[in-house]
Amino acid sequence: MGFRSVLENCPAKLTDSDRRIGFTLLSMQEEVPVFTAAQLAVRADVHESTVIRFAQKLGYAGFPALKEDLVADLDERRQSREVRVRLKSEAYQLDSVVDAQINALRIVRQTVRQETLDAAAKALLGAERVILLGYGLMRPLVDFMERRLTRKGLRVLAIRYDGSEMIETLMALEETDGLLIFALEEQFQSIAQLVPELADRPATVLMTDDAGLMLRRLPTHLLAVPGRDRPAVVGLFMVLSYALGGSIAHQLSTAPGGRGSARRSRPDN
Q1: What domains can you pick out in the chain, each with its CATH number?
Q2: Could you give the CA distance from residue 71 to residue 171 in angstroms, rounded to a whole number?
Q3: Taking the alpha carbons of 180, 186, 191, 192 in that order, is the dihedral positive or negative?
Q4: Of 77, 135, 161, 225, which has the highest C-beta tally within 10 A?
Q5: DSSP secondary structure string, the chain?
Q6: pLDDT reported for residue 242
Q7: What are the φ and ψ backbone dihedral angles of 256, each rounded to 5 degrees?
Q8: What distance in Å separates the CA atoms of residue 51 and residue 24, rounded to the nearest whole number?
């Protein structure tokens, strides 16, 4: 399954120390093959026994088994990075551009499960209104989803800027509102500090990078993609947005009656 998938699907509650260990592992994967539990403990500022308990909490027999999964994840990422480097040097060739997109799609398919995507789509469909939030690099994603959801008949409110207007809107959310947030981990951290109850809403969907797996309070629906290169991550967000919109369209078209069937005649995007 891989360390990242195990971490994402861990049913146990993670402590602050666990989150420090997890974030450290995600940020230092290149060094993992030569790291011991004791060295990781120093880097994460925890006791070595806490590292062992963290591994066992995730279902591993111990730290060596966890490290095996991390090394496997690292090998996969290294192969993907080598492909990207080669493709970048050949970016003027159509075949290389197509191969780059195929590589990005493969990464998304391996890191986000279809049932996770479908559950997020179902949560948004169950809301009376969908709030879209994304600023900076995320604004094109908000534009895309606003058009897609509006054409499907959903009530949509788009927030494209941070600041007081965003905070006021979020604090005035109704219980029946759904929320789709496009944000890198540090962006969501700053938003959640101002409006901490966002993560507890049943219809909150967060699309973020894999550092978001270490958030203190995870939203109900988390769509996390790997990577630290911001433009590349935004590109993966777009792939996920297409898939999320497709899942919403499919659920609307197959609904036996009620709210979904009333929208079947809406034009597709």
Answers
A1: 3-88 (1.10.10.10), 101-254 (3.40.50.10490)
A2: 42
A3: positive
A4: 225
A5: --HHHHHHT--SPPPHHHHHHHHHHHH-GGGGGG--HHHHHHHHTS-HHHHHHHHHHTT-SSHHHHHHHHHHHHHHHHHHHHHHHHHHHTTTSHHHHHHHHHHHHHHHHHHS-HHHHHHHHHHHHTSSEEEEE--GGGHHHHHHHHHHHHHTT--EEEE---SHHHHHHHHT--TTEEEEEE--HHHHHHHHHHSGGGGG-TTEEEEEEGGGGG-SS--SEEEEE--S-HHHHHHHHHHHHHHHHHHHHHHHHH--STTTGGGTTSPP-
A6: 92
A7: -70, -15
A8: 11
The answer to whether 202 touches 220, Cβ cutoff 8 Å, is yes
Q: Is the whole model's pTM more than 0.70, yes or no?
A: no
Question: How many CB atoms are closer than 10 A to CB 165?
Answer: 11
pLDDT band at 246 (very low <50, low <70, confident <90, very high): very high
On whether the CB atoms of residues 189 and 183 are closer than 8 A, the answer is no
Distance CA 114, CA 118 (A): 6
Q: Quick: pLDDT tens for 161-204.
A: 887 778 888 888 888 999 999 988 778 877 877 777 777 788 88
- In the chain, what is the greatest distance between 2 CA atoms, to the nearest angstrom? 61
Length of the chain: 269
Other CB atoms within 10 Å distance of the CB of residue 198: 20
Closest CA to 2 of 202, 243, 210, 174: 210
